[in-house]
Amino acid sequence: MDLTAFFAALDALDTRLSAASRLAQLWAERGRNEHASIASFDRFALGLLGVGAPPELIEQAHVAAIDEIGHARLCFALASAYAGRTLGPGALDLEGALEVDHTLSGLCAATAVEGCIGETLSAIEAGRCAELATDQAAKTALDTIATDEAGHAELAWATVRWTLESEPAIRNAVADAFRRGLAGEGGPPGYACNDAEVGGHGFLDPAEARAVRRDGIDRVIRPAAIAIGLLPGA
What we know:
Number of strands: 0
Number of domains: 1
CATH class: Mainly Alpha
Strand content: under 5%
Structural class: mainly alpha
Mean pLDDT: 91
Oligomer: single chain
């Protein structure tokens, strides 16, 4: 990750905004979420090892964990700039964090929901935030995050394809888990904030965030799920 452009934009960041303290809080929260995702991908890598996944999938899982370290750094750099002091993640509670379901069915179902749905929507949301960002530092960070999250989503879809091809008998159970995840639209938007003052600095109005996610489900996730047999075709 080339951070030259990001830190140049960060130096020019207007931290005198009335919403600066709120932005510091929001970016720090996002940074903590990215930091926690490092452990999520480490757990995912262990799961892949446990089911004998191909080396390329395991390698990509480790690369994704490193991506999340970079994302956390970007978020905390923005949070620190707005706060006027250094902010960081602190200790991460790892109680149960590395517990792994060592079955193909469990790994595939979790990946379908957390990866195929969650990572895909995260990439789409981050991309939309980058498009609307008027702050260059936030835009640069979000462009990076969106690109990386799209890669993480691709890894999830590749993993689900591999597991279903390896053990076709698990398809119905995985499809059920996927449909339940889809019914909840992948959980709450990760880039939404109802504070109008933070608009243009990396966050979406909640209504727009929901619309972005619904569009992502209809335009990207459903067709991809149909293609690999997780949803019936039209």
